[in-house]
Design goal:
The complex is a heterodimer of chains A (207) and B (210). With 207 residues, chain A is mainly beta. Chain A has a single domain, classed as outer membrane lipoprotein receptor (LolB), chain A, CATH 2.50.20. Chain A is 15% helix and 50% strand. In chain A, strands 1, 2, 3, 4, 5, 6, 7, 8, 9, 10, 11, 12, 13 and 14 form a 14-stranded antiparallel β-sheet that branches. The radius of gyration of chain A is 19 Å and the shape is globular. Chain B is of the alpha+beta class and 210 residues long. Chain B has one domain: Lipoprotein localisation LolA/LolB/LppX (outer membrane lipoprotein receptor (LolB), chain A), CATH 2.50.20. Chain B is 26% helix and 43% strand. In chain B, strands 1-8-9-10-11-12-2-3-4-5-6-7 form a twelve-stranded antiparallel β-sheet. Classes of the chains: A mainly beta (207), B alpha+beta (210). At the A-B interface, strand 3, strand 4 and strand 5 of A face loops of B. Chain A: Keywords: Signal. Chain A: This is DUF3108 domain-containing protein. Chain A: It comes from Flavobacterium cerinum.
């Protein structure tokens, strides 16, 4: 092999390695103990999950009320209103479908709808097939396939609760959801943080 | 026996329904009602009131309840302040809107937004009742033993996208709005009930800083 080819190989493998997603860097990989996992948050059909929301997007701040309700085994209804009660959007979501019941005309742009769709489908996704497991001293992580991306579910070893979800491509983390749980089934604070756009959604439980 | 119990129950229900039923106002009643409300609105220099807001959405098991205080000073200063279950306040003043969301402050120019202008007019109008603008709304008038009710349907295409109908319940005793029901095009609605109204007490301008 010519020297330039060797050099090219070294550089490209270095680049590839340095671009690989860092989510589970330093973790030890294990055979997964479980094959599947069901998220316990938002799981009670009798509860109206009402959150005060703060959205900050490229330096602008908005407030509102975020509502999620589990309608049956597979279907969620989710809506967002202003503090005054005006509805901004209303979606129906399952693990693999998304329907807009209503969206305010001003928000009805492809880029906005697609971002909301991705965020709330991720937030309300129930069932995961576990592909790989990683551990370190603080967390256990399940890696689950999500189309071209992967979802990494972090569990706090001390409580056993889902504390973080990272949606990532092979190279980059895209969306990070962190949960502060009040109990095994209720997340009292949720932060959805985008890594590729300047968008952060913070939800604080109200009822 | 069973039949007579049922009969009494039936009578009671019918009587209750009949008393709660809305009747259309006559033309003369409409004129005198409008005059009374306009006179009250004109004489209302300041107003403070508590409110409870109920957001109804069909898919929820119960309405979302929020509450707070409202202060109004003529001609156009308005503070709308939620205190439960969160802190959020909005001041409408000098064509500007100032929002304080639990300490996070932001401001907007109302002049730049036709929608906010209309919103401001609606809120101030629904507080002092000065909103019988036939150019903006198709208005109909009803009465029950306790309330005079105005139903307003927006004519403006922009407003129509947000509001299908506003219903204002005027307390017959004071000719002031005691309840507002705002129905969205989807038929979900928001009800705001005003309580502990105080009119024409001194309110410092500094109250309307956010």
């Amino acid at each position: 092999m010519r020297r330039s080819q060797i050099l090219f190989l070294i550089i490209s493998s270095f680049l590839l390695a340095s671009c690989a997603v860092k989510t589970v860097n330093g973790f030890e990989q294990k055979e997964p103990v479980v094959k599947s996992y069901t998220v316990p948050y938002f799981s009670d059909t009798k509860t109206d999950y009402i959150y005060k929301a703060h959205i900050s997007i490229y330096g602008k701040d908005f407030g509102g009320i975020f509502i999620a309700k589990k309608m049956n085994d597979t279907l969620y209804r989710t809506a967002f209103t202003t503090e005054f009660g005006n509805k901004l959007f209303d979606f129906e979501i399952t693990d693999n479908s998304f329907k807009v019941n209503y969206i305010l005309e001003e928000l009805d742009r492809k880029i906005i709808v697609n971002t909301l769709k991705r965020d709330f489908m991720l937030l309300l996704k129930r069932n995961y097939e576990v592909e790989q497991e990683y551990v370190n001293t603080e967390s256990t992580v399940y890696k689950c396939a999500a189309g071209k991306r992967s979802n990494y579910l972090f569990f706090d070893k001390a409580t056993g609760r889902l504390s973080k979800l990272v949606n990532a491509t092979k190279q980059k983390e895209k969306i990070l959801i962190s949960y502060t749980a009040e109990s095994d089934i209720l997340a009292s604070k949720i932060v959805i943080d985008h890594k590729s756009i300047n968008l952060k959604i913070e939800l604080n439980y109200l009822q | 026996m069973k039949n007579s119990v049922f009969y009494v129950f039936f009578l009671l229900v019918t009587a209750l329904t009949a008393t709660a039923q809305e009747q259309k106002m006559s033309a003369a009643e409409i004129t005198s009602f409008k005059n009374a409300v306009n006179a009250t609105a004109k004489n209302t220099k300041t107003l403070t009131t508590d409110f409870v807001q109920y957001k109804h959405m069909d898919f929820l098991s119960k309405d979302i309840e929020t509450s707070g205080k409202m202060s109004f000073k003529s001609p156009g200063m308005l503070l709308w302040q939620y205190t439960k279950p969160y802190q959020y306040s909005v001041v409408f003043k000098n064509n500007k809107i100032a929002i304080n969301d639990a300490g996070k402050k932001s401001a907007m120019d109302m002049g730049s937004s036709k929608m906010f202008n209309k919103l401001n007019k609606l809120i101030v109008g629904s507080v002092n009742g000065d909103m019988f603008d036939e150019n903006e709304f198709t208005i109909s008038f009803f009465k029950t033993p306790d309330y005079n009710i105005t139903k307003l349907m927006p004519k403006d295409a922009t407003l129509k996208k947000y509001i299908k109908q506003m219903e204002l319940y005027f307390d017959k005793k004071g000719n002031m709005v005691s309840q507002v029901k705002m129905t969205e095009p989807s038929n979900d609605y928001t009800t705001i009930v005003f309580k502990n109204k105080v009119t024409n007490a001194q309110i410092a301008d500094s109250v309307f800083n956010n």
